[in-house]
Every structure is written in C-alpha cells, then in structure tokens.
Amino acid sequence: MKREELANSKIAVCLVGGARQFELTGPSIIEKILKVYPNADLFINSPLDQNSFKLWLLKDAPRLAWIRIFEPKPIAETAPVVRVLTPMHSPNGMQVYYYFNSF
Known about the structure:
By secondary structure, the chain is of the alpha/beta class.
C-alpha cells in the first residue's frame, strides 16, 4: 500500500498485554503511526501491574480511542478450558482468553 492510501484508510493499532517495554515501543508508535496517519486510532487492553505506569507516555497521544487497564484474576481451570486452551491445542490460547475474558 502506498502512503497516500494508508493516509486515507482507517487504521486500528491494538495493543494487548503488559507494558513491560512500553517506554521503548510507546514513543515510536506515537511518532511513526499516530502522528503520521490521521485515521489511526490506538486501542489498549493491559493488566494493572508494576509496569502500568509506563502507559503514562500516552498522555499526549493523538487519537487514543480506548484504553482498558484491568486487575488480573485467576481463571478457573475447568475441563473444557483445559482441553481447548492448552499449549498443545492453542499455544497462546490461555493468554488471549485471559485478556479478553475479563470484560
């Protein structure tokens, strides 16, 4: 895609997970995507942990569409959950389930 096409397209930047290295990735996402493409929106789903303070870097970010910081809770390991979301059947299944099942 050419830059002009991207500038006219809707872009969703979706970040899921902890802010462990956000001091490195956050500024480049803001400078190279959000400030360059006027139709880019940022969505974040992150656990509340010792690195959450790093999301403060977004205070001046343009088009922060949605941010959700949640308190992690244990997931009950029922038979269906274990069967479907094990490394054998879905390597990242538990992680994805964990982040999106707590809405």
